[in-house]
Amino acid sequence: MKALVWHGKQDIRCDTVPDPEIEDAKDAIIKVTSCAICGSDLHLFHNMIPAMKPGDVVGHEMMGEVVETGSSVTKLKKGDRIVVPFTINCDECEQCKRGNYSVCERSNRNKDLAAKVFGHTTAGLFGYTHLTGGYQGGQAEYLRVPFADATHIKVPDSLTDEQVLFLGDIFPTGWQAAVQCDIQPTDTVAIWGCGPVGQMTIRSAILLGAKQVVAIDRLPDRLSMAAAAGAITINVDEENAVERLNELTGGKGPEKCIDAVGMEAHASSTVDSMYDRVKQATMAVNDRVHVLREMIYVCRPAGILSIPGVYGGLADKIPLGQLMNKGLTVRAGQTHVRRWTDDLLRRIEEGQIDPSFVITHTASLEEGPGMYRVFEQKQDSCIKVVLKP
Ligand SMILES: [Zn+2]
Ligand SMILES: [Zn+2]
Questions:
Q1: Is 340 helix (H, G, I), strand (E, B) or coil?
Q2: Alpha carbon of 166 to those of 90, 96, 261, 266, 350: distances in Å?
Q3: What is the DSSP letter of 366?
Q4: Ligand (nearest to CA of 260)
Q5: What is the pLDDT of residues 190-205, one digit of tens each?
Q6: The whole model's pTM is what?
Q7: Which value, in Å, is the radius of gyration of the alpha carbons in the chain?
Q8: Residue 389 C-alpha to ligand 1 middle, in angstroms?
Q9: Sheet harboring 329-332: ordered strands across?
């Protein structure tokens, strides 16, 4: 089959690789009908996250039709149309039973490696390094789905691929980011980063009834999309985010702050950003945390910080004194995808939201490597790419 394969820094190719096979009685195989490039795939593209190996198939946002099931799969049959959550979950361990799917205790095949790095294992993820199990990804013609009875979202034929595809990642990711802010009708919610996850977060915060939602970015196309949803926008190339946020909140600061940027924060003109870039270039730290510092600084005391943005490891110069003295709560995490998807599928069916609004580009799998560049460089007003294998 054809698949997008990681070969090294900024080197993703469309190769021919062996078709996946049933390896365990709990597996299913799907024929992928649509998949997407996620913002966090760019961290792999830039080789910012360790434990990728040349030959790994990438991609963790995908859906398709079941073509084969293992002998113990009971909830799926050939022909079923499913979205695959990027977090692989078993449904049987203590964490899965509590709905904490992204920290499933069983689905990571490289538990020991993950435990060494994080202190404990986290769930297996598709197409996202050997730290999370080394599972092949879904930017491919076919995909093996482990723990298939648990790891799937069945979708109705009445909805298009484009309407439901993002249930596997960016929609529940944006939703969880907003939900963990515990949004009140009096809240100002500030969201740094208006990429695909940021866009879903903005719409989620509005659906959850925030008083005002403020979207912060430096790309006019992304800010226009945010404004179309009803957000107030701040272009950091033109104005100071902290000053404007204080102005919008009568000097009090936003009650809730969301980092939808993660480890590769731009803002290269500030002193702290230049410091991060130097330390990252010399491998002294993984992550650039300019956005986190700004959030801690501007957030209203006793507020909540939510971090859906991906970080890889050690960061430097986190203002712990401000965090502690202001009494801020920090909530982070990979998305517990299936915890949210019944509700979100219902909201799509009821027409409360159509997540396909975010798609700017559709291409074939062969065009995938080129689309990584278009997405990375934000050429041609690119916000979200869907690939059709
Ligand atoms: Zn993702
Ligand atoms: Zn589990």
A1: helix
A2: 21, 21, 18, 26, 16
A3: T
A4: 1
A5: 999 999 999 999 999 9
A6: 0.94
A7: 20
A8: 18
A9: 232-235, 212-217, 188-192, 256-259, 304-307, 329-332
